[in-house]
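Hello,

Following up on my earlier ticket. Below are the two sequence lines again, exactly as submitted.
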Amino acid sequence: MTQPVLTLSTSLLLVLALAVLGHVLAKKRALSVAGGDIRALAALPKQYALNTVLSVVIPAAAVLFGGLFAGRFAGTGVTAMLPWAVLVSAVVGFAISLMRITPDFRARTHAESWIKLLLIMASGVAILTTVGIVFSMLFETANFFQQYSWRAFFFSAEWSPNFRGDSALGILPLLWGTLYISFIALIFAVPIGLFAAIYLSEYAGSRMRSVAKPAIEILAGIPTIVYGLFALVTVGPFLRDYFAEPMGFGQSASSVMTAGLVMGVMLIPFVSSLSDDIINAVPQSLRDGSFGLGATQSETIRQVVIPAALPGIVGAILLAASRAIGETMIVVLGAGAAARLSLNPFEAMTTVTVKIVSQLTGDTDFASPETLVAFALGLTLFVITLCLNVVALFIVRKYREQYE
Amino acid sequence: MSLLTIDARTKTRNAAERRFRAYGLGAIIVAMIALAILLTSVVSSGVSAFSQTYVTVTVPLPEDKLDKSGVRDPAVMAKVTTIGYSSLLRDGLVQTLADAGIETDLSNGDVGKMLSKEAPATVRDQVLANPDLIGGDITLDLLMNGRIDGYFKGRVTMESAAVDKNVSPAQLQVAQALADAGIVDTRLNLAFLTAPDASDQRPEAAGLGVAILGSLYMMSVVLCLALPIGVAASIYLEEFAPKNRWTDLIEVNISNLAAVPSIVFGILGLAIFINFMEFNQSSPLVGGLVLTLMTLPTIIISTRASLKSVPPSIRDAALGVGASKMQSVFHHVLPLAAPGILTGTIIGLAQALGETAPLLLIGMVAFVREYPAAYTPDAGLFGEASTALPVQVYNWTQRADPAFVERASGAIITLMIFLFIMNAVAILLRRKFERRW
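Thanks for your patience. The regenerated structure is below:
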């Protein structure tokens, strides 16, 4: 392959040089068209310079990213043209912006509309991410369903992938494991988190709050891999030796219970800080009214504050559930890898996220259903958590407006 | 009826009150205990990773074995593999035993096996770096085998050694005798933080060097991308965006993205950055991009909150003296919001540093022994294969040798120290610069 005349990096360097040159020239030209008196100009000389720099850099950057992206579809022809296209767009921006410098040219307004364009594009990244997530999974999932029947995927209770082909890829045992573990986690986290929030917002003095709140927040800041190791090294063997084996439930250290308990600990701060916010948003007048009727503090909380905060708390629980369903590292290290439909909480089971990891790490072949199934699993997970999130966010939002 | 005697109904109501209070207190205590158990369990099993057992051995370096040609050319000498060196080490250790007056029934081969499999490579590197050593002796501290190391740390006992085919009680006795003679000791091991990962057979040599470097690269990518994009997006949404469907959509999107499971971002990275854009697998660049997309919502949410907390009077004053909307934001609002933005960014970075699941999918679990370069012409910026701290933890938990559990916990201590520092800085910044209006 011969070295191209203009490589992308030289082209980018040239654009940069052009921007610097534009800065100097624009300033000079603005001063000269004003005849040396900047009061005659519609904007400060530095704003003419800024406009020129942005007119060089932004179109070039747009062409660069557009070209890189298009090159993935259209092939090497586009990629070879790209350095020239970038340079040309920069030169055009350079020339036009310099030519437009007159005393009446509103340089500040123009420069600011360039900046605003940048800001808009930055906020578009969020949309692009979502689009990227959906498309990256949609295409591969479509591929998967061409090779594997969707009925078997959604309604089969057997999961036994086999890289030589002829796999059974039913999602039901994975969904069962996911829901079972999340259920145990929520059973553990919701009462503790809720009571902690109630105590902190209604009973605790400022001293207690200043100690307990940060401590609970530390739990929220601990990475999930730490919880995973905790499940693997401490909780799993403990549950096996003191509960599962004596009670005859099995000998597995990794189990639904292990993962569920540890995930419950992870969710405590999540539930408690969300509920704390929500309980604090209940107006004091409601409490005062209740006290005035002679209710004790716990009666007030149970019969006035909690009912008033209920929608928000439900939203918080739904968000916690979505967290639990999408959690990966704790279940990878704590729950085991066996796909199983069983009620015994001390048995190893597996989840959707565990199988996404196991199908996509190691040797992968993006033509076989055994690898592609991970994308279908991912899409299912995304849709489930999306529904939970949308409902939860809607409820929380509605609730906040209620008392504002 | 008297107000001074408490009737039955009031008693039950008061009891209910006390019970309710106790539940609340109990919940907080449970949470605290969980935190305490979690931290002590990780710290107690991980602290020992920072110390390591070394033996001081004098190794003979005969010319006829290491450099037959006698020209002391490292390129020629490199033909002698570590296998050639391990027999020299064995001889050195046997001699050390004899010198110390320690008698044993162990065969010479079993004595040699007490050393780490990494030790010959250490000596070989020394010799290749300094060929003049050949012909004489070299005295240096070498790593002991992981099981011997475990004996001094209490992980391996005489009973467990009796059923372990990798180590025998006789070897442990010899090690104990050497320790009593002061030839073997367990001391601080900073190589754990700098050395690269090691294979399954040599947990004693495994370190975090590559992982820390990889995490550092990824954090720089995240900082360079997520901070400007996040701040720009927040400025638009908070200061300029008209209230319409499009901005509503963006808002819903952002709060939604914050709650999308992290593994989904891993799938995105695999499909878009690796399969579609063909960036290098396992590279910090891809890891950084994925983490950037994950951190963006966090940064946007906190930046918007701090922009919102700047009072409108500041903006009005700037507009009143003729500043444009853009100038009022960039010259006045943004500097005032900067401490809050910085705090949010650090917290977002801390989250990204601990994230594991998406990195597994983009191949960062690979076994990497080479320190990745920040830039090479072939691989580009941050394009060389690397691992990351949390992924290294996962990687070590998947190995068979129990010594790796100690390593994994040690890695977590390191990770938590980084996180602690970042959060402390964030809290300090908030304390020092936060203004209440």
